[in-house]
Amino acid sequence: MERDSQLKLYGLVAEQLKEAHTRVRTLQVPESVRMALSRKLLVITAAAKHDLPDAARRLERLVKDLDEGRFPEGD
Description:
- Helices cover 79% and strands 0% of the residues.
- By secondary structure, it is mostly helical.
- The longest helix is centred in the first third of the chain and has 25 residues, at 2-26.
């Protein structure tokens, strides 16, 4: 049963990551901000391989920041 819930969470995180990448790609922000957001998404993707629940929480925070217009500083 736990494996089924893990697979379900993996599918959910994968779909949310795909949507987040699309959102970041289409944002009207400076390229440095887009790159910072892309790096955050890559870190979350890597984290999902080792700690899926943590990656899901991190992705949720990132999406909330996007929804509220909070973006990282560009280089």
